[in-house]
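Bug report (template v2)

What were you trying to do?
Predict the complex of my protein with FE2/S2 (inorganic) cluster.

What happened?
Run completed; filing so the output is reviewed.

Input:
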Amino acid sequence: MNLIVNGSEVEIVSPPLTPLLHVLRDELDITGPKAGCQQGGCGTCTVLIDGEPRRSCLTAVAAVDGASITTIEGVGQAEELSAVQAAFYKHYAAQCGFCTPGMVLAATALIERKGGPVERDEVLEALGGHYCRCTGYVKIIDAVMAASRGEVDSVDDLPVPEPGQPEVLPKGSPA
Amino acid sequence: MKAVGARLPRYDGLGHVTGRTQFVDDVRVGKTLWVKALRSTHHNAAITSLDTSKAEAMKGVRAIITHKDVPKNVYGHLEGLGVPGDEPLLADGEVRWLGQPIAAVAAESEAAAQAAVEAMEISYEERPALFDIRNALDPDAPEIHQWGNVYPHYGPYNHRRVRKGDIDRAFDEADTIVEGVYRPQAIEQVPMETQVSLVVPEASGRLTIYSCTQAMYFSMGVVAAHLQVPLNKLKFVGGTVGGGFGGKVDTATETICALLALKARKPVKWRWTREEEFLVSSTRAPWHIELQDAVSKEGWILGRRTVTLHDSGAYARFSPYGLTKHAFHHSGAYTIPNLRFDGFVVFTNRVPTTAMRGFGVTSVSFAVETHMNRIAEVMGLDPWELRLKNANRIGDTSGNGVVLKDPSTVAVTLAAADRVGIELSAEYRGMNEEPRTGALLPEHLVAQQNLNGEGA
Ligand code: FES
Ligand code: FES
């Protein structure tokens, strides 16, 4: 079997009924998709299969032989965030970050499909099967709508410490 | 104070949105063994036999542990405070809750570990179980804990007590007594990341422990105690928690993984399934809270009697601490000069309970605020005015003797009224936190007022 994962073609040696989630995480060491429930209930394992958001925990790898898979790693880097990633970052839509890869991918597919601004109802429908226990969803919904309109809040107005005051600038992600 | 009010970026935000944040399950250390546990299928039972020999002989199985492999099996989360331990890491001779771990296996795959668990032979003799804290003190209730059904280690008492003022006089002088019973129930914290740890034995003899704990140094102490090793044998790596909400305070997987890693001399990982997270991870406790308030017809709360039963589940863990916090907050954001509080930590055959978002406090706040509405209803008073009148003020003394210097009840109540569009009279709208005087300092509140700022 073969997959195109984030643009690169890879050969898969896992047995054909292995869930795509395990192929990605354990055979390919791509750890962006998370194992939140492994039974289709939470959305943390979401990846794009030929552009459509799918639960990789419920997808046997043989069923997607030859398909193009996009994980969060293929969406953007810290230096080069996609619009949705930038919006999640700047709207504080990620707290613990465990649901974030699935949320970002589902939101990316929604905006792609719509090709323009998305409404609140559409966000609710597209992210309906994605659980987040930290944020209360409001900031996630705001972020997706903002990304779809190309309006992303700024977090750049950092305070400047006065001489002798402790540094308050964040040190950046440990990741 | 430059950071207050500024829009600071999350320090870990870029890692989160790019999927690069490394959670425990994302750590890769080469060949790792998987862990599964044999768990109790009964709520309360004696273990009459346990045989792991078939499991040990199975392909792919690298280590199995039972209570015999734990240097210090019985431990308690409050041992540092001098409270004896009560909970075995792995059940020894009996089980007290459905899902309690009895043995654990490390094998080359998750499936091999599960198959080994299923090959273990165990038999039980079932005992009557206790599920409802309200029945725990009945004469015919089964005694389910070695200390009896009530935690006995509050100094000389078997319950947490608060005594303030002259409670009998307050009830004698009351115009009305308002009673209420409140029963907030168990809640699972449901973090999106289930309990997980990865333990790597190092050539130096130390263990590197990747943990999702919310309480690093506490977890380190727990593992060191069970293993009976000094802290310098453990290197904990943590700080990235995929949601916890209190559910990752108790040490769930680290100790068992550490023992298996030592026995198998291989890296060992245990990631709970979503079913395990729901069925056997610790929850917020259920409570039974009885409030009885002595109220004057003007709407002053003269006194409060409280009895709380706090469901600890099968073992104590942190519940005695949670109930202490509950006790400190049982007068809510209000000043009540006469108090009598008796709180009992009660054992049941349920999964041991633990912290969740305001350990012990949210339950009593729910009870107190619901009770305030009930008082207003019974007395025909406005619930906002009742709250503002009895609100904590500078110089008031709390139930546990703290003199309040910056209480926020009035400001918060006024802001809440404003948000929901409640029109208050000018008298109440103009209230603030300043020390009580005039009509707001009736006779019964004089003695408790302390304007020197010295705590009792
Ligand atoms: S892990 Fe696939 S939906 Fe939860
Ligand atoms: S940010 Fe923690 S679950 Fe969504």
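What did the reviewer find?
The radius of gyration of chain B is 26 Å. Chain B has 13 helices and 19 strands.
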